[in-house]
Specification:
single chain, 155 residues, alpha+beta, Cyclophilin, 2 helices, globular
Amino acid sequence: MAATPEDTLIIETSRGPVTVELRPDLAPNHVARIKELARQGFYDGVVFHRVIDGFMAQTGDPTGTGRGGSGQKLHAEFSKEPHTRGAVSMARAQSPDSADSQFFICFDDASFLDGQYTVWGRVSKGMENVDKITRGEPPSKPDKIVAMRVAADAG
């Protein structure tokens, strides 16, 4: 079943566009918050600050350090949705209820995260652009989100 424009996110990265099908059935509060932040332009210009080959690309921190966020913590919405290639999931600190605005996209299988992190979407197009994101913790010349929009809002 294809996602509706309201449940589709377009992430324009410095490496090209990435389309994410949102999963409000799995994580309704996380999806609502991601859409709210995207509509505010919160993610525009934010770098991928932690990119580990064979694992994931993490973004969503406006400071670029991995310590920042929007200031609004979310309660965990864990599910059985697997952390496989293309899964989009929330980053968090040690507390399960510490997710904020940071998220990551899995390059490969990361099943060791299953049931411990909130999956809220899946890349449906543009995974080849995710694969091009510069690696590093942090990368010396990080790629970034140029703009992030809900498809229903795009012209």
